[in-house]
Here is the input.
Amino acid sequence: MKTNISSLLDTSKIHMYHTQSLEKSAIAESLIRTLNIKLRILFEVKNNKKWVNILQNLLDECNFKDNHRSIGMTPSEVNKSNEDLVLRTLFKQPREKKNTVKF
Here is the structure.
């Protein structure tokens, strides 16, 4: 099984990438979840499960139309001039708890 997948990836010139970062995994999982939801809605509306013809439209919608909550803009709006702002927004450090006096 593993050799079949490896040979398929090689012939398709696809590089398998593994991440050790929870943040990067969360971003990818969020996109997968969003696409899954959009696909399920379209499957029900169109009453068929042919996803090959609609996947590119859904990806374009996610990249160019949908405002992503995590970065506060669409991914297509991210560029070199605002990449620092996006990184700070996306990977902001959690606020430290203030020590409060309990009576």
Notes: The mean pLDDT is 85. Helices lie at 2-11, 22-46, 55-65, 83-90. The two ends are 63 Å apart (CA to CA).
